[in-house]
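MODEL INPUT / OUTPUT PAIR
PAIR INDEX: 1
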Amino acid sequence: AFHESYPHCQLPCAEQLEKVIKREGPEYIAAFICEPIIGASGGAIVPPPYYYQRIKQLCDHYGILFIVDEVMTGMGRTGRNFAINHWGVIPDLIALGKGMSAGYAPIAATIVSERIIDVISNGSGAIMAGHTYSAHPQSAAAALAVLDIIEKNQLIQKVAEKGNMLMRELKKIKEAHPIVGDVRGKGFLCGIEFGDFEQKGLSERLIEKAFSLGLLLYPAMGGSDYYGGEGVLVAPPFTLQQEDMNVLLQRLDQALSLLEEDLKHG
């Protein structure tokens, strides 16, 4: 949207926040909420270095809460405990879900900073919120088991290491397929964006090709051109072994070849 790229810019994407704050008035803004690495709505778009540092500075300066949505990116998916850790920034609140139970039971959680909990403690001392199935024993047990397995098997460290390998191989696939405009991401949250925005339905067609080969891909939209674009997410499980990665890459390469062949013949 800004037609600039890091490091040859002054982070206009971050400075835009201050323009909005001044336009609307900080007294009318409660919080800035973001997904640290944009998932399905952006195809694993990774903000540039220092982006979130500047966002946090602006939020602190104007008294606005900084909230991060780590439902998709948290619990080690990007090779760190939370995706925001890649920028060394501490938000005021973190929303968690999905990966907490590895999909075995529905569960979500909110992590708050000391600053936030102090306000509650010095006030009523009570959090006046709840749900019918809050603290459900089955979900809590699943989440505790997942945390235990992640820690004992050092899965987050392995995701970081294998994620680097996966990204290197995805970049090779990009070079081999003109239809691919960009690959990006961190850890086991990688995005493939098509370069030809005139063609519609490419994401769905690639997913169908991959599925026929035994590979599951996740649809993504709203690419790096801000308003349009199509792509897919490659988000393997934490248990991925080298032989599994080889199969994944082989089938992805084959699916892209099949799609390109279809496009040649209209």
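PAIR INDEX: 2
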Amino acid sequence: MNNLEDFANGPPVQEPADPELLDQLEEEPDAQPMIPAASAAVPVLNGGQQSDDSDSEFDVLDEGPIEDVAEDNGMEDAVNENERANAPGDDGIHHAPEDDGIHNAPEENQMNEEPENNEMDDEPQNDNAPENNEIDDEPQNDPEAIENVEEPRVQQKKTGRARKSVRKGNNMWLTTRGNKNRSKNNCLQFSLKPAEVAEKKVFLKKMQELMLHRTANGDMMYKPGCKEFLEIFAQHEHLLRNNKFKIKVWNDSKEYNKKLGNFNVPHLFKTSKDLRLRAPDINFQNVVTFLWESDDVLVINSMTRETTKMSMKSFLDTFNEERGDQALNMLSLEVSKLETINKELEEVEYVRNVSMVSILERALAARKDKLMRHRNDANSARELPLVKKMMKEMPRYTKFVLVSMEKSFTDTHVDMSASSVFYHVDEGRKVFYVAPPTEANLKMYKDVELGKKDVWLLEEFWDQWQRIEIKKGQTAMLPSGWLHFVWTPEDSIVFGGNFLREEDLERHIEFTELEIQCQDHGTAGLDSEFLFRKFYPLLFAYIQYVVLPDIEEFPLVPNDERLTALQVFAKLEGKPDEDWMSTSEQNRIVELLRSEMAKVAIEDNEPSTSQGRLSLASISEPKNKKTRNH
């Protein structure tokens, strides 16, 4: 539950490598993730926002064959050209054409560049939809590749589930062939081949046998991340994929807001230009020049799970030394206060727009300016020091620099306060294995964290893990509550961050309380260093400086879309011993919110189309709210 890779069952361990999996998906802005029918869906707060997606967070698969054919003029030639270009290379993996439109043969041993069997979901018939595609689940038992391209637009024929039409986009083509299954909402499935199914069973058996070894005290002898564990894991980790739910993979990041949608499934952007992430040119040769200011950093040896503090120079020097049985992993360096890098590193734009911390910071900056203009007023003079204090002590978690040795491994966890994550690989590779936040999954996770159950979560969710490989220059975004563990197949430098969203506030509070319980009971190896600092003071300040001013400007109306998120804020009660506000002041602020909400009647679940913003987070948009018409 630490930052990006976090501590779950002990100190963090790290991340996976590179096989022929994840490219199972292509883009479709409104597609939903898939889980087994037996899994219970966890409702996600939308902050009142409406979605084109289905009502449930995870849809149940409705299997059925579908035949794909090319229908545009000239497509036959494109298909033939693509078939010639996609002949398997030495690695046996079929690769997509490059962005320049030239179909290149795959490089030797290049895993997962465009894995075997990539598919495209049908997009709704909407000319305004982003011209990009979510790489969807791979076709079943198809030995041939699906050509995946930069920005094709796909439309579903109205005559049922028989075909896809393929349209030209950015001088590139998408062609599909092979046997597929899809659900009612056009979600294609991926299935392991029979030989892989058998291999995955052997993989699990090997892992189970390894974990059975115990010390005299009954502790696990070979813990996840140790040398013996990694010898088995590295051989078979590419099999940790399934046909139960999907992850969205995008060839570019244009119109990322449409692609992210409600942001309730993981996304991988193969190029990050339009995410507006700004980062310095860092590599292993010059990284010390950017990080030399930092104090001693917390470093974890994934193989032994030992944690130590080292100077930055000493830590980086170990990358050039004989490593032996160590895989050092630096996960907790947030660089907002380091002048040498802070100004050159900027989070992805989406995070700046929706992060509750970022929204509050902007609101406080505006309030400070107003108070400064009226500082001779007695009320302003009293409030100004508090606003300055909040700005100075604001918890910042969106500018992490993670430096990891090859073979680093982080065991299963949910990030602190169930915060969402963005993760940009600057050097090397990382592999995430994710499982959806179903009610059953989260209950199991909580029981393990609280010491109520003694099970190994990697094994417990064995058939749910979905593999996401993040290569150099790519950016992954993981929503709130998704369970994950991470493997580092080669030395890596990563820029990333954690952020809270109003839409996920209920889950943020739920997991913050879980972490406090774990800390109080001494379970899960947590201490205050790995909790989201000033979580509750942040929420009360958010009500005072963001929520209430917004209601004042746009009064609530019956069935207002904002009420969903406001109901969560209204349940808060003052917390003792908080230095931003007294408990009585916190309660006063919440009572003000409740009184505003009491002025309107919640008649039904349908949102009003009257005034009021679509989401409180839209305060982050650089627009004149006065002119907005909702």
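PAIR 2 NOTE: The first strand starts at residue 34 and ends at 35.
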